[in-house]
Amino acid sequence: MYIPEITTDLRKDSIQVPEIIKEHASGIKIFGKKIKSFVFTTDIAIIQNNNADAIIAVYPFTPHPSITQAITTVAQVPVFCGVGGGLTNGNRAANIALHAEFQGVVAVVLNATAPVETVKLVKNAVDIPITMTIVSPFTNIAERLDAGATILNVSGGRKTAEIVRKIRKEFPYIPIIATGGPTDADILETIEAGANAITYTPPSNAELFKKKMDHYREIENNRNEEKKNENISNVTT
Q1: What residues contact 169, with CB distance under 8 A and at least 6 apart?
Q2: 7 CB neighbour count, 10 Å cutoff
Q3: pLDDT in tens, 34-63
Q4: 8, 50, 62, 147: which has the fewest C-beta neighbours closer than 10 Å?
Q5: Beta 107-110 vs 28-30: how paired, if at all?
């Protein structure tokens, strides 16, 4: 079916997630909204300019409500937000998760090292899904689910599809988000292994800006060349 597409000159450079995700992923319905694609970033500019179904915002620092507030203020789609699980665990993680729920996130994300006790505390604190990050095929999935995790976020590098396949065989109906990899073939393999939704890591702000600046330099060089030729023409005349 033909789908009309509307954009503007000012918005045409936004981050586009790979089309193969939309075409093949089943998606996960959360509070009635189907989510197939996530952009993995905490960059406010990228959060404002992308076509993903949702944002997954986890970062290698102690979670803080001000970061969550900044992200949810800018995001135009649902946000999954990291609330710790490693150094930040126990009651502190539960309190951050509750605050994140009040700020409007639709799910919280615990990192792979979160103890079962922390998962239980977060479960008792919030009324939104708990997303458990899985990085190894040897993780005890059952105990995380029993503790209150409702979604799995698989981030296993090159072994991601393998881990997803193993989980899907044991847990046919658990919602799985997974990193897709750098190519359409990698993404498709992960989906066919059993992932319901895919996280896409966009180019960094610096990479995008470098491309933009190269374009601007080309335009400026062309202008200067045209002006130079025009001056030569005027002198000759």
Answers
A1: 194
A2: 10
A3: 999 999 999 999 999 999 999 999 999 999
A4: 8
A5: unpaired
Q: What are phi and psi of 227, to 5 degrees?
A: -65, -40
The owner of tokens 């503790």 is 147
Structure token digits, residue 164? 């997803």
Structure tokens given for 120: 């239980």
Centre a 10 Å sphere on the Cβ of residue 234 and count the other Cβ atoms it contains. 8
* Lookup result for tokens 């200067």: 224
Those residues whose C-beta lies under 8 Å from the C-beta of residue 227, and which sit 6 or more positions away, are none
Examine the pLDDT at 204 and tell me if it is beyond 90. Answer: no
Tokens representing residue 102 in the block? 């009040």
For residue 130, what pLDDT band results from cuts at 50, 70 and 90? very high
Listing DSSP states for 8-25 in one string gives -TTTTTSB---HHHHHH-
Tokens of 11: 């918005």
Of the candidates 200, 194, 162, 193, the one whose C-alpha atom is nearest the C-alpha of residue 179 is 200
